[in-house]
Amino acid sequence: MSPGQIAALIAAGAFVLLVLLLAIPLVKLGRALDEATIAIRKAHENSTPLFVEANTTLNHVNTQLERVDGITANARAVTGNVSALTSLFTATLGGPLVKAAALSYGVSKALRARRAKKGGDADAGRRSRRARGGRK
């Protein structure tokens, strides 16, 4: 055996050792890819019931939203009716009630002032003049 043949045997042995060392991570990578494939397949199989449930939930939500739309439309109608009723009440009874209250206040004030003059109550007369803005 010549030194060149020995060197070739050493090189061949090193090459075999290198191939074996590289084969181990490649085998492990293959197993990991197989597991990933299985996991993806299971996720795909289990996604169908999930999508069915999500679709059912969305249908229920849409039903509830339609009900809420009806409720808000009714509330809008009620507020419009209340607004119209309030403006009608203010127009028909508000003005006359204010005038009647002002008249009754004026009459009671005049009667108090008249009683104060009749009764000779000097203090009542002064109080009446002070309220009107007269002299003390």
From TrEMBL:
Protein name: Secreted protein
InterPro entries: UPF0478
Biased composition (Basic residues): 127-136
Region named Disordered: 116-136
Upper lineage: Bacteria, Bacillati, Actinomycetota, Actinomycetes, Pseudonocardiales
UniProt source species: Streptoalloteichus tenebrarius (strain ATCC 17920 / DSM 40477 / JCM 4838 / CBS 697.72 / NBRC 16177 / NCIMB 11028 / NRRL B-12390 / A12253. 1 / ISP 5477)
